[in-house]
Amino acid sequence: MIRMATGIGCLAATGAALAVTLAPPAAADPIEYVMFLDDEGVYYESMTDVIDLGKFTCRMLRSGAAVPAALNNVADAGYAPFETGIIVYAAGLKMCPDVLPVIESWAQDGTGASAVSHY
C-alpha cells in the first residue's frame, strides 16, 4: 500500500512539473503595449484602434511580411516616422514576442528574415 501511495505521489509531482514546463507562453498583453506607447510619448486617438494596429502588425510579421511593410502599414495609419518604429517594436515586445527577433535583426542591420519559419 505504501508503494502505491508513493507511486501516485511521484506521478502527481511529475504531472505538476510537466504542467508548468509545458504551459503555453504568457498571453499577449494589449494593456502593457498601450502603456509602453504612453511611456514613449506616442499619441493615439483611440486605444482600441492602436491595439488593433498592434495586432495587425503581429499578424503581418507572423505571415512573413518584412519589417518595412509593417512600418509602412503603421505610417499609412497616420503616425509620424518616429512613432511607427515605436509601435512596431512595442507590438513585438508586448503582443507577439515570437517576432521580436525579426524586428531587432532588421533594426540592427536591415536584413531581418521573415518571422515565418520554413522547415
How does this model look, in words?
The chain has 119 residues and is mainly alpha-helical. It has helices spanning 2-21, 30-39, 47-62, 67-76, 81-94, 100-109. α2 (30-39) packs across α3 (47-62), α2 runs antiparallel to α5 (81-94) and α4 (67-76) packs across α5. Mean pLDDT is 79; it is low at 4-24 and 115-119.
Short description:
The protein contains six helices and no strands.
- How many helical stretches? 6
Biggest sheet features: none
Distance between the termini: 50 Å
Order of helices and strands: HHHHHH
Q: What is the rounded Rg?
A: 20 Å
Shape: globular
Number of strands: 0
> Are there runs of 5+ residues with pLDDT below 50, and where?
4-24, 115-119
Structural class: mainly alpha
Strand content: under 5%
Overall helicity: 55-70%
Q: On the 0-100 scale, what is the average pLDDT?
A: 79
Question: What's the arrangement of secondary structure elements?
Answer:
Elements: H1 2-21, H2 30-39, H3 47-62, H4 67-76, H5 81-94, H6 100-109
Helix pairs in contact: 2-3, 2-5, 3-4, 3-5, 4-5
